[in-house]
Task: inverse folding
């Protein structure tokens, strides 16, 4: 039998490696950040899902303002995403504490994160409370093309992180499965 059983509680690690993101919010005159690795692309349209709940301070801002920015983290930000994801913004200003720069967004009150490779301004269009899933529509996206480090960071789920590696180009074979314009 070539397949060995994998402990079921580790199965999520096989699907986990989406990009590690930092989510910015702005609520009651205060910017905040959290780290999120549980994200999902829901369509070729800019519709995304994030999984988080009331155990985090950011959840209140997401529910009340219905806005956020998704910042895409890269390999050079590995320790920053850990700082942001292991502290709560209830008492501290994470931008100031961790050397991050908020930049004004154009459609939402949550700030862009200057140090991220890319930022997506989003509006919350649904919240599925039973599963703590926020459904977001991207309304504007930004990318820092001049950035030297462009390797996106992935969380394995066990405290180990991976940066993008080899690239495989298969555009022709993908044919009409690719959406127009990508
Ligand atoms: C690598 C990493 C990934 C994380 N992914 C998630 C996630 O997907 N969903 C979530 O609710 N919390 C996640 N967290 C935890 C939150 O970022 C953390 O609870 C944070 O302190 C919340 O900040 P806040 O209280 O200021 O909102 C992650 C933390 C780390 C370090």
Result:
């Amino acid at each position: 039998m070539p397949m060995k059983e994998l402990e079921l509680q580790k199965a999520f690690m096989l699907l986990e490696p989406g990009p590690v993101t930092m989510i910015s919010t702005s609520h009651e005159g205060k910017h905040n950040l959290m780290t999120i690795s549980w994200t999902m692309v829901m369509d070729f349209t800019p519709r995304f899902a994030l999984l988080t709940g009331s155990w985090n301070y950011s959840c209140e801002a997401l529910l009340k303002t219905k806005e956020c920015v998704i910042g895409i983290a890269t390999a050079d930000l590995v320790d920053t995403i850990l700082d942001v994801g292991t502290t709560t913004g209830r008492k501290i200003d994470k931008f100031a504490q961790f050397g991050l720069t908020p930049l004004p967004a154009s459609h939402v009150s949550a700030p862009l994160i200057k140090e991220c490779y890319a930022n997506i301004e989003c509006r919350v269009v649904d919240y599925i409370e039973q599963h703590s899933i926020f459904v977001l529509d991207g309304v504007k996206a930004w990318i820092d093309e001049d950035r030297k480090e462009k390797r996106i960071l992935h969380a394995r789920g066990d405290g180990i992180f991976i940066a993008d590696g080899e690239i495989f180009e298969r555009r022709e074979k993908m044919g009409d499965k690719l959406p127009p314009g990508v």
